[in-house]
Amino acid sequence: MSATLNADDAELAKFSALAHRWWDPESEFRPLHEINPLRLDWIDKHSPISGQRVIDVGCGGGILAESMARRGAQVTGIDLSDKALSVARLHALDSGIEVDYLKIPAEQIANERAGQYAVVSCMEMLEHVPDPASVVQACADLAAPGGSVYFSTLNRNPKSYLMAIVGAEYILNLLPRGTHEYARFIKPAELSRFARNAGLDVVELIGMHYNPFDKRYSLGPGTDVNYLVRCVKHA
After folding, report:
1. What secondary structure letter does DSSP report for 167?
2. CA torsion sign, 127 to 210 to 57 to 231?
3. Which of 78, 90, 111, 204 could form a disulfide with 230 if both were Cys (CB 3.0 to 4.6 A apart)?
4. How far apart are CA 43 and CA 138, in angstroms?
5. CB contact set of 120 (below 8 Å; sequence gap of 6+)
C-alpha cells in the first residue's frame, strides 16, 4: 500500500497488467462489458445524464465513462493506473468520444472540484482500496447539492464468498483468480453508514444477479452478493 495514497500497489499492478485487454469483450473484462448496459441504464434512468457534468471514480479502461459520454454527458474519468488510463484515452480517440481522463486520487480532485458534478459514479472500486470510507466521502464532496452518487461493490458473507470468489473465479472462470479479496468486501449496512457520514441520503439498494444457465445479468431485489447503491447529496 502506498504511504500517501488511498491505494493498494498490488491491486493497481494486478489491473495494470491486464489493461491492454480492457476493451476485449471476450477477455478477463468480459463481465464489465456485460454488466455495463445495466448500470448505465440504471444511472441514466434515475439521473438523466445528457448535458450533465459526470465523474467516474476508478474508471479503469473507461467502459462506463465512455458509454456515459456517448449519451451526451460531459464526463471526467479518474484512476491511478497509468496503463488503464492510456488504454481509455486511446479507445476514446479511436471512437471519437470525448472524455477527460485524469490520473488523480479521488480525495485530491474532491478538494479541487468540490460540488461540481451532477452525477458521481464509483463502480467496482471500493473493494479494492484500503479506506473505502475515504473514497465515499470524496465522491460525496464531488457531487453538487442535490446531485446523485452511485456505488457498486460486493457484500461480505458466506454466500458472496462462494459465488463471487469460488464460483466466479475458480469454477465459472468469469474473473481471473485473485481478482477479489474477501476481507475487503463491504456489507450494505457498512456502505450505507459511510454514505450517511459523508452527507448522503441512501435512496436505493439493488442487487446485480448472474444466471449461470443463460449467462445473463440482471438487476433486482437481493443484495447478498453484488449490489448497487443510489444516493442523493443533501441540498
Report:
1. I
2. negative
3. 204
4. 19
5. 54, 55, 57, 139, 140, 142, 143, 147, 148, 149, 150
**Which parts are annotated binding residues for S-adenosyl-L-methionine?**
39, 58, 79, 123
Q: Which uninterrupted H or E stretch holds 214?
A: none
What residues are designated binding site?
A: 39, 58, 79, 123
Strands 200-211 and 226-233: antiparallel
Give the 3-state secondary structure of residue 231.
strand
**What does DSSP assign to residue 234?**
-
Per-residue pLDDT of the chain in tens (235 residues, 90 and over written 9): 344 589 888 878 877 877 888 999 998 888 899 999 999 999 999 999 999 999 999 999 999 999 999 999 999 999 999 999 999 999 999 999 999 999 999 999 999 999 999 999 999 999 999 999 999 999 999 999 999 999 999 999 999 999 888 887 778 777 777 678 899 999 999 999 999 999 999 999 999 998 988 989 999 999 999 999 999 998 8
Query: Among the residues of the chain, which ranges form H helices?
Result: 9-16, 30-46, 63-70, 82-95, 106-112, 132-142, 158-160, 188-197
Cell numbers for 72, please give them. Answer: 451526451
CA-CA distance, 138 to 190, in Å (whole number)? 16
Q: What is the pLDDT of residue 2?
A: 40
Q: What is the DSSP letter of 64?
A: H
The one-letter code for the residue type at 184 is R
Whole-model pTM over 0.85: yes
Reading the block at residue 162, the C-alpha cell is: 462462494
* DSSP symbols for 96-117: T---EEEE--HHHHHHHSTT-E
